[in-house]
Write a structure and sequence with these properties.
The protein has 3 domains: 189 residues, no CATH class; 133 residues, no CATH class; 185 residues, Galactose-binding domain-like (Jelly Rolls, Sandwich). The protein is 16% helix and 38% strand. The strands form 7 sheets. An 8-stranded mixed sheet has the order 7-2-10-8-4-5-6-9. A 5-stranded antiparallel sheet has the order 12-11-14-30-28, with no helix packed on it. Strands 13, 15, 27, 29 and 31 form a 5-stranded antiparallel sheet that branches.
Length: 530
């Protein structure tokens, strides 16, 4: 059952530290929309109108158009009387409240209502002044369907944020075997770096030659400094990257004996096998802290010099949130990119840690969580094996580990702890037989060395095709090493949302809470479409 209310809907982002709250009217009331909202706003209040003392509903259930629960007096401070914007001391619980109004008599005890009994509803957000959607042309007075659609158009307009050059190995039959992306996250000159992409599922060719395509499928300009193919021989189960981006070989080691999300849900099964059944940090969470999981490992059979091993990737939702953020720059976006090219990479990377764009790791020692390090940019199109060193000499037979990131920004397939690892690997460089671009031009000299002489892939459809001579009897791993960076290209027509961007800059966990709110409205769109 669905009821469309004749109410306007105003979208406002989470921003901490403000002293004003703003109301947002719920324009679509369905089973799905109420159940979605209360995940994020779990304190449900019911009143005759916005001016009367409300009751709270506990044990809320909404199913087939029927609302049931148990009414009791609301003991919180409620001096709110329907204002669009109000001081938080008038209604301190507002940020976690779903407020519904009805003409029905409200008596403490069990209650049953239908959706037709609900006259309207409100949720509340922090008020930063001008909102992001105002810049995009979404104003008070739009219908619910148009409103939620506008949010999702902004967010899911394209999946394009953080993947840089794609890599495919050409199979003997001419088909492409997609491998992943190179130097993901290096979207400004200041973030230029070398990257190692471990290739997999390769089909042997009769000649032994390996043909690799490095290509641009995105709205960006890619600057590739060097490309090399390396063979790696080792006696371990897996090959990945350590915290410095260097190659590391390791055995699986010990799996966690427990793993719980911050809401108490057991997620151990999702993290115990390399099976692409991921844990995605997508609990509703809170605005005060990043989403997290806590794991316990039995370390009886693990040496002191251990590695925390993650098989995972950053999520497509991170990309969608990033695109929404980019759009707030509007016509200023190209200028912003130019300025960021010359920015401070250390400051940028620390902000990525603080905001939960990186996935941060902690160990519990003497009852306190101690920071170990962060898993940084690995891209969103393919999983990687990445490691962080952990000194276990101060721990007993068990160690507790916490992983945290912004809401829904990482997908993790497996977590393990191992002391069976090595970075002292036997490597062999395989020479490039040829390197040509999409125009047939020879670029072999340009990609041969780290010299800031770049192959530029300036638009979608540009590529570099490389052939390497690999002996047919080679039995190790093949790794594509490449250095460079990229710049996003956008042609937004809206004016820059300067006030909102300033608020984001000065707000703790702004990225996390932007993601949470966009996630809620994306779910509401899905609910309103059903």
């Amino acid at each position: 059952m669905k009821k469309i209310l004749s109410l306007s809907l105003l979208f406002v982002l989470f921003l901490s530290g403000c002293i004003y709250y703003r109301s947002t009217e719920i324009a679509v009331v369905t089973d799905e929309s109420i159940n979605t909202i209360v995940k994020y706003k779990p304190l449900v209040l019911l009143g005759k109108n916005l001016y009367s003392e409300p009751k709270r509903i506990d044990n809320l259930k909404v199913n087939d158009g029927v609302i049931t629960g148990n009414l009791s007096n609301y003991s919180g401070r409620y001096l709110y009387s329907g204002q669009n914007s109000f001081l938080k001391n008038k209604f301190r619980d507002a940020l976690v409240v779903t407020y519904l109004t009805t003409n029905k008599e409200l008596v403490n005890g069990p209650i049953t209502l239908t959706l037709a009994d609900i006259n309207g509803g409100l949720i509340y957000e922090r008020d930063p002044g001008k909102t992001a959607l105002a810049t995009a042309g979404v104003t008070v007075g739009v219908t619910a369907g148009a409103f939620v659609g506008a949010v999702v158009v902004l967010v899911i307009r394209a999946i394009i944020a953080c993947n840089c050059p794609y890599v495919a190995v050409i199979n003997p039959d001419g088909t492409e075997n997609f491998q992943g992306s190179l130097f993901p996250g290096s979207m400004f000159t200041m973030l230029e770096r070398n990257d190692n992409l471990v290739l997999s599922n390769l089909q042997p060719s009769a000649s032994g030659a390996i043909e690799i395509k490095v290509y641009n499928e995105l709205e960006e300009v890619q600057y590739i400094d060097n490309i090399q193919l390396t063979g790696v021989n080792h006696d371990y189960e897996n090959l990945g990257l350590n915290e410095l981006g260097e190659l590391i070989a390791f055995n699986k080691g010990t799996l966690p004996i427990s793993a719980k999300a911050q809401n108490g849900v057991d997620v151990l099964q999702s993290l115990s096998a390399r099976d692409d059944i991921d844990y995605s940090f997508d609990e509703v969470g809170t605005e005060e802290e990043l989403n997290s999981i806590e794991l316990t490992f039995n370390t009886k059979n693990v040496g002191d010099k251990a590695q925390l091993v993650i098989r995972g990737q950053q999520s497509e939702w991170l990309e969608q949130t990033a695109e929404y953020f980019f759009q707030q720059f509007g016509t200023y976006f190209p200028t912003w990119v130019d300025k960021m090219n010359d920015g401070d990479s250390d400051k940028y990377n620390q902000n990525a840690i603080d905001q939960g764009i990186s996935m941060n790791a902690f160990v519990k020692q003497n009852g306190e969580w101690q920071y170990v390090g962060s898993f940084n940019n690995v891209g969103t199109v393919a999983k990687r094996d990445i490691t962080l060193p952990i000194d276990l000499s101060a721990f007993g037979d068990e160690v507790e580990v916490k992983l945290e990131c912004a809401h829904a920004f990482w997908d993790v397939d497996q977590v393990s702890l191992t002391s069976e690892w090595s970075t002292e690997l036997k490597t062999t460089k395989f020479p490039a037989l040829s390197a040509v671009n999409e125009l047939g031009e020879d670029v072999s000299a340009t990609i041969a060395a780290v010299d800031k002489n770049y192959v530029t892939q300036a638009e979608k459809g540009t590529y570099t095709m490389l052939k390497f001579d690999v002996p047919q009897d080679f039995k190790g791993n093949l790794v594509l090493n490449a250095g460079g960076f990229y710049n996003h290209v956008r042609d937004y027509k809206n004016e820059p949302n300067k006030k909102y961007l300033k608020e984001l800059k000065n707000t703790e966990l702004s990225t996390h809470n932007m993601s949470r709110l966009l996630s809620m409205y994306a779910l509401l769109q899905t609910a309103s479409a059903n």
